[in-house]
Amino acid sequence: MESRTEVQASELEQQLLLMERIKEMIQTQRNQPLAYVDTYGCQQNEADSEKLRGMLVEMGYGITTDENEADIAIVNTCAIRENAENRVLGNVGA
Fold it and tell me: By CB count within 10 A, which of 19, 55, 69, 70 is most buried?
């Protein structure tokens, strides 16, 4: 059974304002920063990572598949699936 968390409209507005501020800061930089999103877990995690990539692009980041190039790295995992969580902890440690 899926549990849902309801996000208040004021929280969404705050998120959009923060994204806009980040976009403005990035636009002043000489080089476009790169983001890397690493995903572990189920198909829902993959869908969430695509949303995250879209938000990053909207803020002005480029997306890279090379974690060593990235200015920011996001690790998206599922705490429900123990195997995914263990793989993340091992990879982050490495």
Answer: 70
Asked if 73 and 40 touch (Cβ cutoff 8 Å), the reply is no
* Total residue count of the chain as it appears in this document: 94
Across-strand partners of 34?
62
pLDDT tens across 4-25, in order?
778 899 999 999 999 999 999 9
Please state, in angstroms and rounded to a whole number, the distance separating the CA atoms of residues 72 and 77: 16
Element (H, E) at 63: strand 62-63
Distance CA 47, CA 37 (A): 12
19 contact partners, CB below 8 Å, separation of at least 6: 55, 58, 59
Element (H, E) at 22: helix 9-27
1 pLDDT more than 60? no
Inter-CA distances, 36 with 10, 40, 61, Å: 28, 13, 10
Task: Give the global pTM.
Answer: 0.77
